[in-house]
């Protein structure tokens, strides 16, 4: 018996997605599994053993807290790369643990060298170039300063990578901007290597760029959303399948989210349901109460719009999504009982509630919906 809801991860889907990506990207390109935002809502502690089982040896996170969670979940050595936030003390601990991290300003580089000297351990860094995202990264002048500092302290620095972040490779509207970024990256790489600094990995591509811009794959690709069974956008998916005779989606969703019927009620025609007056029963209906609401990641924007599956039937969310509950119209579903399964995301019978369906209703991105799934929801793994 589940609590209020349960997230289940499908191991076979993990195996399928990794195999597909390896086949398309080739054996020479390292896959870094992006597991930021609690592994896109799937759960770091649950997903790492699965990724590890199917050969993933490199992980990307946003901050040091996530890095430690990955570190503690591994059973064999692997590379962990922090792309974002570390405090000064985190930098010291990261160096000590052999955790790699992005350097996107001179201050962080100097702090890394300071702690590397104290610990007598090389800091494993990835220099991040500012190529047009205008978010984080070294511009050309800062890169030249960084090169000088690294060369003066070469015994304390391991140049694990030279990278940048592309500004929206999932949309053709950004094509010119992406091309300009790639050209700028190559110019900055020429400056770096012209100073006899050769990074272990050159990397710029996320899931979208790895498929839309094959030349951007380089030595390593940072794959997030595709590992979990989602395409970065419909544009990327259409571009991939456009020239293929087999139009079936090669990716499989890993995540299923389900709850259960908490209570059943008969409501007479002409009665309002839930808070306010947003839903008026037009006929006599039967409703089911489900113990999931916006505090559990089921967005309030799905009020009177959301769908769930009960007994293999598509059922509507009626009324306002509450903090802890939603109300479902089950008038057309026979023999529903308290305790019956309610599928919020995933398959039941021949039907499926997709994360993309949430996006179409609420204007949230796949990424946003997944990242909003609370860590407090229990997560389990099944074949």
Key features of this structure:
single chain, 12 helices, Lyase, Ornithine Decarboxylase, Chain A, domain 1, 23% strand, TIM Barrel, alpha/beta, 2 domains, 383 residues, eight-stranded parallel beta sheet, five-stranded mixed beta sheet
Provide structural commentary.
With 383 residues, the chain is of the alpha/beta class. It has 2 domains: 11-241, Alpha-Beta Barrel (TIM Barrel), CATH 3.20.20.10; 255-353, Lyase, Ornithine Decarboxylase, Chain A, domain 1 (Beta Barrel). Helices cover 33% and strands 23% of the residues. The chain is built from 12 helices and 18 strands. It has helices at residues 11-25, 36-40, 44-53, 64-73, 88-97, 106-119, 140-152, 175-194, 207-212, 234-241, 355-362, 366-371, and strands at 5-10, 30-34, 58-61, 79-82, 100-103, 123-128, 157-163, 201-203, 220-223, 255-260, 263-267, 285-290, 307-310, 313-318, 326-329, 341-348, 351-353, 378-382. The strands form 3 sheets. An 8-stranded parallel β-sheet has the order 8-7-6-5-4-3-2-9. It has a 5-stranded mixed β-sheet with strand order 17-16-10-1-18. The longest helix has 20 residues, at 175-194.
User: Which structural category do the helix and sheet elements fall into?
Assistant: alpha/beta
Question: How many strands, what sense, and barrel or not for the largest sheet?
Answer: 8 strands, parallel
Strand order of the largest sheet: 8-7-6-5-4-3-2-9
Q: Could you please say which CATH topology of the largest domain applies here?
A: TIM Barrel
Count of spatially separate domains: 2
Task: List segments where confidence is low: pLDDT < 50 over at least 5 consecutive residues.
Answer: none
